[in-house]
Amino acid sequence: MNETIIYGLGGLVALAIAVLVVIKPTRPAALAALGWLASIGRRAWWWLRFRLTWKSVAREAGLSKRRTKRVKRMGVGEESIEKWRDPRLKRVKTSAHSVTLKVRTRRGQALADLEAFAPKLAATYSADAYRVFPAKRRAGSTVMFELVMRDLIKTPAVAAKPDPRMQTETVRLGRRQSGKPFDLQIEQRHTVAVGASGSGKGSILWGVVGSLAPSIAVDAVRAYGIDLKGGMELTMGAPLFTKIAVTGEQAVEMLRDFVAIADQRTEELRGHSRNHKPGPGDPLYLLVIDELASLTAYADREVKQEAERLLKRLLSIGRAVGVVVVAFVQDPRKEVIDMRGLFTQTIALRLRSAMETNMVLGDGMAPFAPAHRILKGAQGTAWIIDEDGSTDRVRADYWSDDLIRRVASLYPAEPELVTISDAAPGDLPGMQLSLTDGGSR
Ligand SMILES: Nc1ncnc2c1ncn2[C@@H]1O[C@H](COP(=O)(O)OP(=O)(O)OP(=O)(O)O)[C@@H](O)[C@H]1O
């Protein structure tokens, strides 16, 4: 088997040399052919490397078990022989940038032991990132390791103008580490994104609000915002919001309105439908909270207590009736993340320690979704936990101030609904904004 591979690789190298000799390597087609050959060669090399070194790596990492057996040999007498039991490498699959291993536990081994091996495996093969996820078959004894050998999301991407079609179910935020699109479900979900200062929370925030802009313009989504840092972040795209609260009292009032809407919808939907389906005139209510801690940790005691009570109620009743929350947190301390269990999906941007990662994503998650290892310069990069419990690394596209302003003026919320609180810094230069006094509905 190994000989076949070596001959195969030799053949590929010979072919590459032949291509170089016969055609001029400056022509685009020749360059493309060479690139293709290089990619095939690289994948073959990865495949070979993992196949050949798996057992020794597993043994050095303590995943294998050694048994010594005493056997009797004719003429030699009794002799001890060593036998290894290794976890079985069932499949090695390569792509242009990653290697996926399917591994089965050896007899007497716990699946958790194998899963905990992922960081050592990634370090041994110098992988840029890794993730562990359950195998489709025999998930009780088989695990999949995806090692990213060439990081596709290392370079940032800039967001484009949103798809003009009405979309309320999911939004496209960027890319997964596999290169596939990173879509975030909005309907039926409460989302919390946690990340240190400068980790790129803004690109998640505007990815959500900006991508929903065409739906906001036709009143299929009504976006409200709480921004107690003087409205600095949200007023950038003010026309997209029906209302922005910039003081603790306004925030409490807004939360009260949201709870009332959720209660009313629950009443209306009871007996008819279990889930609200948004559409023009019957919108999805979206509450965006920039810096949750400013409301639940640093505000006045009264505001804090009332806000926490209302938010907890909203998080427990809103989802099915089309009233959802997307909140952002910088400091995942206990009192802030007290509500973590009520959020149905979590995005962990760059965090400061493995302890914070465990706090945000759940106990024991730090080795599987190491958000504390995200580099400072990789803003917008985050770890998420998918529906099936597997983790994945993603990178949100960057939303520039200019793009936010352009999208906001292209798809403003229906003017008669918009109310900007008196204390808000007002409309931005160059933006058309109708202000009325009516308050939110
Ligand atoms: N997706 C991204 N890709 C590349 N660069 C980004 C991305 N998102 C943000 N940045 C860069 O990182 C900087 C900080 O981003 P951002 O303001 O969104 O961080 P933040 O987490 O909201 O910080 P804070 O909590 O302090 O407001 C931006 O000014 C921008 O230069």
What features would you highlight for this structure?
441 residues; alpha/beta; Rossmann fold; four-stranded antiparallel β-sheet; 24% strand; globular; disordered C terminus; cell division; nucleotide-binding
Written account of the structure:
The chain is α/β, with parallel strands linked by helices and 441 residues long. It has two domains: 77-151, Threonyl-tRNA Synthetase, Chain A, domain 2 (2-Layer Sandwich); 170-420, Rossmann fold. It is 33% helix and 24% strand. The chain is built from twelve helices and 17 strands. The protein has helices spanning 2-22, 28-60, 111-115, 118-124, 201-211, 213-217, 248-269, 293-296, 301-317, 334-337, 354-361, 401-410; strands at residues 65-73, 77-85, 88-94, 98-104, 129-134, 142-148, 170-176, 181-185, 191-194, 221-227, 241-245, 284-290, 323-329, 345-348, 381-385, 391-396, 419-420. The strands form three sheets. It has an eleven-stranded mixed sheet with strand order 8-7-16-15-14-9-13-12-10-11-17. The longest helix is centred in the first third of the chain and has 33 residues, at 28-60. Adenosine-5'-triphosphate binds next to helix 5. Residues 179-358 form the FtsK domain. Keywords: ATP-binding, Cell cycle, Cell division, Membrane, Nucleotide-binding, Transmembrane, Transmembrane helix. It holds the Pfam family FtsK_SpoIIIE.
